[in-house]
């Protein structure tokens, strides 16, 4: 008798459209059952029905606004309780706060709730169970703005730097326990997110990636075991050199003396 192994269920946030919906399609194609999370229940149900029909996988929808603590708690509960969930894709995100002086405090907070607080809380809810079973994956969607905040994005770029640093710290803590972690840094990708900032017309076509291409590249990086995936970057050594420069500084970053340039007793002609 052949035993068919049940693949892990994948919970994807922001699955109603764009990058999240494309991840849902690709994981369903690979045979994974899905839990799809977003606010728009009609879109989620339509996608869930299509994926179940096309790929013969179980699909569930969970409507939640991840900026609202009581609704976010439903997703956290699901991650804690549903033993079939072994992969989390923290994808839901919003722009905002690009021009810092023109961003109302409540708008900055809502963005941080979605881009920073939600993925952190969802990981905190899921991680103990993944560690107990010694297996599982967490994919966090950041942005290239995490390493290039001057390009665009103000508080949004900063929220994505958090996702990058958080994922690096997470990787260090769980890699020995069988947990796979990946941070994806997309460049400009053609999705509805750009409607919030007036569309993609002002951006040169050679800088815009189609969403299928972006997600397929990110999943290729996942399959290759990458921790950091930058779908656009032609030469991965560019990232490796950047990361190496950062690591080289590490031994000097905390010392019992200040650097000479901050000492007032240095002679002027020194
Ligand atoms: N597109 C790009 O150029 C680009 C580049 C770099 C990084 N990213 C990142 O990629 C991720 C996905 O972006 P996208 O381009 O696919 O954006 P999108 O097309 O606007 O989709 C965003 C998704 O998040 C959901 N969402 C928004 N607010 C939510 C909330 N409060 N609670 C729960 N779900 C919410 C939306 O569904 P509902 O409206 O149904 O809730 C939707 O499913 C984001 O983290 C984004 O920052 C995108």
From TrEMBL:
The cross-references to Pfam families, in alphabetical order and at most eight, read: adh_short
Among Gene3D superfamilies, the record links this protein to:
NAD(P)-binding Rossmann-like Domain
Record keywords = Oxidoreductase
Q: Report the residue ranges that make up the Ketoreductase domain in this protein.
A: 8-197
Q: Which SUPFAM superfamilies match?
A: NAD(P)-binding Rossmann-fold domains
List the InterPro entries. Answer: KR_dom (IPR057326), NAD(P)-bd_dom_sf (IPR036291), Sc_DH/Rdtase_CS (IPR020904), SDR_fam (IPR002347)
The family note in this entry says: Belongs to the short-chain dehydrogenases/reductases (SDR) family.
Q: What is this protein called?
A: Short-subunit dehydrogenase
Q: What is the lineage of its organism?
A: Bacteria, Pseudomonadati, Pseudomonadota, Gammaproteobacteria, Lysobacterales
């Amino acid at each position: 008798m052949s035993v068919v192994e049940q693949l892990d269920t994948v919970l994807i946030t922001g699955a109603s459209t764009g990058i999240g919906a494309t991840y849902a399609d690709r994981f369903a194609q690979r045979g994974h059952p899905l839990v799809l999370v977003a606010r728009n229940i009609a879109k989620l149900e339509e996608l869930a029905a299509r994926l179940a029909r096309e790929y013969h996988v179980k699909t569930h929808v969970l409507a939640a606004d991840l900026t609202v603590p009581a609704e976010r708690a439903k997703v956290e509960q699901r991650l804690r309780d549903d033993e079939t969930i072994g992969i989390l894709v923290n994808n839901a995100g919003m722009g905002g706060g690009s021009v810092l002086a023109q961003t109302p405090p409540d708008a900055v907070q809502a963005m941080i709730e979605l881009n920073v607080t939600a993925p952190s809380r969802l990981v905190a809810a899921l991680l103990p169970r993944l560690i107990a079973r010694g297996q599982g994956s967490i994919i966090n969607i950041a942005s290239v703005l995490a390493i290039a905040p001057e390009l665009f994005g103000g508080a949004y770029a900063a929220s994505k730097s958090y996702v990058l640093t958080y994922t690096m710290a997470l990787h260090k803590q769980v890699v020995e326990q069988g947990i796979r972690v990946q941070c994806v840094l997309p460049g400009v990708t053609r999705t509805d997110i750009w409607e919030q900032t007036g569309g993609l017309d002002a951006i040169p076509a050679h800088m815009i990636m189609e969403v299928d291409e972006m997600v397929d590249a990110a999943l290729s990086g996942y399959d290759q075991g990458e921790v950091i995936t930058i779908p656009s970057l032609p030469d991965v050594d560019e990232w490796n050199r950047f990361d190496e420069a950062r690591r080289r500084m590490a031994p000097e970053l905390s010392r019992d003396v200040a650097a000479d340039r901050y000492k007032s007793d240095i002679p002027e002609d020194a």
